[in-house]
Design goal:
heterodimer; A: about 110 residues; alpha/beta; 5-stranded mixed beta sheet; 5 helices; globular; B: about 160 residues; alpha+beta; Heat Shock Protein 90; 5-stranded antiparallel beta sheet; 5 strands; about 25% strand; binds adenosine-5'-triphosphate; binds magnesium ion
Chain lengths: ~110, ~160
Amino acid sequence: MGLKLKQVVEELDLKVLTGEKLLNREIKGGYTSDLLSWVMSHAKEGSLWVTVQSHQNIVAIASLLDLAGIIVAEGVNVEPKTREKSEQEKVCILTTDKNSFEISGLLYKLGIGS
Amino acid sequence: MKSYKSDKKYLYADRKDKNHKGKFLMSMRFDISGGNLDSAGEASSTIKSKLKQLGIGYSIIRRVAIASYETEMNIVLHANRGTLSVYVAEDHIKIIAVDEGPGIPNVELAMQEGYSTATEQIREMGFGAGMGLPNMKKCSDQFEIHSDIGKGTKVMIVIFF
Ligand SMILES: Nc1ncnc2c1ncn2[C@@H]1O[C@H](COP(=O)(O)OP(=O)(O)OP(=O)(O)O)[C@@H](O)[C@H]1O
Ligand SMILES: [Mg+2]
């Protein structure tokens, strides 16, 4: 059994920006990148995506690829439009002040492989 | 690479789709406006949910989603306007993207991984890795691209079940 979003939220002290109801979702892997076409071709279904991008297109990508959720790192401010869209598309957005490297390392340590 | 005019076979393929509309399980067409980043990705989302309703398997849906998203984004980012059409047939899905825009002066170059003419501003948003066209090609069983400088670009992608 893989970890669920809510366990990761607790363990890593993430803020749940949107998708409170989606936290039971299982995480099958992880992917870290800010280049959207790389994410598009490499991030797998059920993965948690770490990025510093915050515009609404990240929601479209997460939804198209059925990602488990998005972690917006480095305390980047998520635009209201992105939040709105993530509620509509049922995509969970988590945030952290840690940078992408740190948070990816911590996820890996929790047992989330690639 | 050939332009629209010199490629009769390609135009014929398009026309054939119209004549055989009854043979398709489903066809969809979306107008995409250039520069409109706010609604970018919406056509691809709709395509994906319709295919899901048809009961199409996940790996096919994923390939179609990647291909349609990258074509949609290229129209949004690089062209003035265009249409994205999807035809679902018995044994394949065909995606046709036609746009009015600057066209691509060197298609072979544009097909290379990492080649992009995206502006700094667009790159900051994470676009412009120069991976869109290579991604499309990777996802497709048949891939054709034709561009007429100053007029537009046409992409055709076929994915077999
Ligand atoms: N529809 C189009 N109209 C005009 N130029 C295009 C079109 N599609 C692609 N191009 C040109 O080809 C280049 C490569 O396209 P490609 O999709 O591979 O990368 P990109 O769009 O620049 O970046 P990415 O897709 O990784 O975000 C573009 O930068 C652009 O110059
Ligand atoms: Mg592109």
